[in-house]
Each structure stands twice: as structure tokens, then as C-alpha cells.
Amino acid sequence: MKFVDLGKQYQSxxxxxxxxxxxxxxxxxxxLGKPVEDLExxxxxxxxxxxxxxxxxxTDGLLLALMAMDLRPGEEVITTPFTFIASAExxxxxxxxxxxxxxxxxxxxxxxxxxxxxxxxxxxxxxKVRGILPVSLYGQCPDMDEINEIASEFGLFVIEDACQSxxxxxxNRMSCGLNDIGITSFFPSKPLGAYxxxxxxxxxxxxxxDMIRCLRVHGQRARYKHDEIGxxxxxxxxxxxxxxxxxxxxDEEIKARQEAASRYSELxxxxxxxxxxxxxxxxxxxxxxxxxxxxxxxxxDQVTGFLKQEGIPFxxxxxxxxxxxxxxxxxxxxxxxxxxxxxxxxxxxxxxxxAFITPEEQEIVIDGLEGAIGVA
Length: 376
Ligand SMILES: *Cc1c(COP(=O)(O)O)cnc(C)c1O
Hints:
Elements: H1 6-27, H2 34-47, E1 51-55, H3 58-68, E2 76-79, H4 86-93, E3 97-100, H5 112-124, E4 129-133, H6 144-154, E5 157-161, E6 169-170, E7 173-174, E8 181-185, E9 199-203, H7 206-216, E10 220-222, E11 225-226, H8 237-247, H9 250-271, E12 291-294, H10 299-310, H11 339-347, E13 348-351, H12 359-375
Helix pairs in contact: 1-8, 2-8, 3-4, 3-7, 9-12, 10-12
Bound molecules: pyridoxal-5'-phosphate.
């Protein structure tokens, strides 16, 4: 069994993917041009946002979005400590400061009450907070209406890290189209994955879109005329063609992921009351980039030990919250700073999840968990 079975997916769409790749090679259209434009057009229509810009990775997209917002050294951006490092890394890379706010332990996403308190405190301290960077963790958006409202109250931008949530709905609107800018990732194991790195930036703002397009090719609008200090952060054309081929099946895949998630939750709720299944808010959908449960502290390590022995794949997203990473020790935030994020890091466990997982495989996983808890 695989944690994410990309081989099964390839076998299912093999002809479409192979011919998409060969088409690019035949035409030698490796850098930008039609293949990237075709994907941008398809995905912007899907999200319902005017502009989509293909970029080198989700991380590149986050960085370009902050650059387009003209984030300056010393300025601050509110984000979550319970995420992949990239969300906070890009803020620090621009010499700005990530200001962490604790999560809501039910959804694992930013707690908006805590956010309001933190903003009031930073304002009082005379800090220059510029924006909020919420992460739609595991494939479910936080309460974006509330976040947008807080942002407009404090005059802030909002950039959604939607690297795990492409295809998710919030009040029937699409993730990536809910804020000033949304960014997703085509890292191979994401719900819509490439065969290498890739990402896409979405915005309804034509000026921001133009700036991001310019920054992704060395700050250039006309050839060898550089208006801005940019970088090379283009989406590779072969990757764009692969993602477009897979996109034809994306809605079916989301449905399969959601069915697999329901099956997991039903079995766990029935058989293993010690394990807490994911909570999806009634006004949104989750695309289950990860199917992540909580196992009480202490018990989790026994469970992972047992699963390892049985050869059942699992992952921990994420074992160390961002504020406790060595790279961020300069912020001086020790253990106890964000109790909900720290507790989540000790309790979460992600189970094998992809569109091609079978009920039989899921039962093996559940039996493994049951066995592990029984032994513990
Ligand atoms: C995967 C991921 C990223 C980074 O995406 P890359 O394409 O790997 O650069 C950023 N944020 C979150 C929450 C992610 O899961």
C-alpha cells in the first residue's frame, strides 16, 4: 500500500498524460507560451477568478504574491504556526516578520478570535501589520468571510495559502478565489499534482496579476527590458500539460477522496472511539489533501510504532510547529507560545489518502489502528 498512489493514477490516464508530454516535446515549447496559458485559462475559469498565473511552485507563488503586495522589511504578516514551513518562510525571506496566531483545535485553521486579539496588540505596540496569510490546511478553508472582514477593519491584505485546498468550496465559492490573492501548489502529492514542481497564483486584481506575471520572469514585461527586480519562477510547460491532462479528472478525484474520507470516518467512529476524525464545517467542503485524525498524546507514538511494524504507511503533518523550528529561533517563541498548535503537533496522524485507494486498503489501515490501540 502507498500513502499516495501516483502509479495507479498514471495507469488510469496514461495515454492522455503521455501524449500531453510528447506534444510539448514535439513542438519544443518548453518555456511558457500556449501550454501554460491553456492551464491558466482552464483553472481561472474553474476558480471563477479573472487572472491565473502559472509559477514554479507553491512557495514561488506565495513569495511572488507578497512581493506584489510590496511587503517591506520590518513589516508584519499574521499567519498560522501549524502549517508547512513555506507559509511563514516566504514572509521571513522578504525580511518581514511572521506573527503567529494559534489555531482552532477543531479545524486546525487560524482562530479568528485570537487573530483579532493579536492585531489589536500589534497595533497598540505600533507595529506595521500589512496582511493576513491564512492556510487552508488539509484541504479545508478557514472562515474566510470573517478573516476578510477583520482584514478590511485593519486595512490588511489577505493571501490564501491554498496549496492543500485547490477544489475546496467555502459557501459555494472556490478556494483560491476568496481573498486578494490565492496560491496553490502542484507538488506531485497534492490533490492536483504535476510530475515535478509547479504552482498557480489567482487574483481578481489586474494590477497585481500584471506585477506577478512580470516578477515571475525577471521583472520583465518586454524582452530584455527589466522593470522590476524579479526572479525565475515560471511554471514549466511540460508540468502545465501534465496538470491540464489530470485536471480533466479532477472533479471525479475529489469525489473519490471525499468518499474515502467518509468511509474512514465511519469506520473509526464505529470502532475506535479513542481516535478523533476530521471535522468539516457545514458551509464548506474539504478536498482531503490529507486525511488527518487526532490520537491522544502519548498514544500516538505507540500507534505509529505499531503501524511501522505492520508496514502501513502514515505521515505526520506536522511534527514541529513553525515557531519551534530552529530556523525561526530568532523570533524567541518557546514551547507554550501556541498551545493548540503544539498539542496538534503531538496528536495528528495522516492516513493513506488518494483518489484510487480501495475500501479493502482502507480496512487494512483501520485494522492496523484498531490493533495498535488494542495493544496500547
Ligand atoms: C505544499 C505546500 C506549500 C509549498 O508548495 P510547493 O509547491 O512545494 O512549494 C506551501 N504551503 C502549504 C500549506 C503546503 O502544503
